[in-house]
Amino acid sequence: MATADEICGTYVLSHWEGKVTPAAATLTIHHCGDVVTVNATVSNDMTGQVKFEPNYLVGQLELSENQRPDQKQAAVEEALMNGFSDGFHAILETNKLLLKNSTTSFVFVQSAKLSDIFGEHAIIAVNNQPPNQEMTMRFVPDGNGGSFVVVNIANSLRGQCQIESGLLRGELASTLVNADDDLAAVENEIRQGLHDGFQIHKNESGILLQSSAGSIQLCQIVSQKDLEGEYVLKSFNGNIVPTTNQPTVVFTPKGDNQVGISIVVANRIRGTAVLEQNILTSEEPLMSTRIVGTTEESNLEGAFNVGFQYGLEAISRGSELTLKNQDCEFVLTRVAAPEVQNTGPTYKGTHCTKCFKTEGNGLLFRIVNENEKKWAFYNDTEDHRMHVQASFGSRSSIEPLNNARMYQDEDGRFIVEVTVNPQTTEMFIHGDVNGFKMTYDAQPI
Questions:
Q1: Above 90 in pLDDT, residue 191?
Q2: What are the DSSP E strand ranges found in 265-339?
Q3: CATH class for the domain made up of 4-112
Q4: How far apart, in Å, are the Cα atoms of 303 and each of 127, 236, 286?
Q5: 187 by DSSP, 3-state: which?
Q6: Which of 134, 136, 147, 388 sits between 20 and 30 A of 246, alpha carbons compared?
Q7: For the whole model, what pTM was predicted?
């Protein structure tokens, strides 16, 4: 069940009526307190305030007819206008937003959200040129759908901002310190950029703020607190590494800028690194158990050990953490861990959903790993056997895993079932999903 903060962001239309969209479209949802505003753009802009309830959006959009749409664009515009007027069931699944009612359906892919920029960032380039002194920007959620922003250059610029119509907009007030021409120009560019609107782009260095007048490249300043948690490996040097078990990395803050490291591949590897200016460096080799793994696992373990000794730059982008130097690059994704009362799942996912949302801690959890395109279920109860049944759209490309069973119904939908015993994890499916419905049944033992 998505909250207003979770559903807000900028999206790009992927599918309409179960097929690849015939016309490009963007959708921005933002809120200020209880007021939720939708802006959709195909050929023309459609804007309006909507009523948001859990998993439901309804409201009138006003069309600004500045352009003459072609037939396909006009059809998408009309479907969006009518859809919001009638009301959409809204389902946020990982980075995809499904809007559906009895007459139409849309799938939007999220391209940016305000939380992408939360934290403190160093300004490492202005219009592709490095700055001549240290400059920072800090974004902190304001609890009302927007963000406080503080910019430190020669002056301190402070204000609030939010995403409106796909752009990061806001107003800044400034202290009155005399700045040289170069620094004053940067301050003015940021102030004017927020006033007119910045496009938010995620790139290798961090966040790029792009306006009609120029660009500001940000690199998040990573703290021990930012690193804390468990991660699964997404890729090593751009490739997926075949391993027996999921490679994981756990970071634990210690004193004096130190971070504890625990890595599991074939072996368990432990050590301590120092975090200075986004660089993690271990003064001593990491300690490892002595299990003989595959060649790929041994190479990965050796790369971790050597990488931390030489130093790895940490780049944080939302739930994704990149560790890299000139010789190697690890891309990690933060594990979404359910709040369990027992041992917990044996499979690590990047997203986790409670299946029984109003019962206790959720009892049964659906675990999705976007990197591996796999689903699993974990039963956290002690005395209930859970039966799971899912119906997937006919355009899905999936296969059942382990004990899961799959068949097709007369309409071509894929039906997958599995039984999950208490305190166990069952793998479910692998592949690409195009729409789904779930039913759960708890059977006392």
A1: yes
A2: 268-276, 279-281, 287-288, 312-317, 320-324, 329-334
A3: mainly beta
A4: 35, 9, 11
A5: helix
A6: 388
A7: 0.80
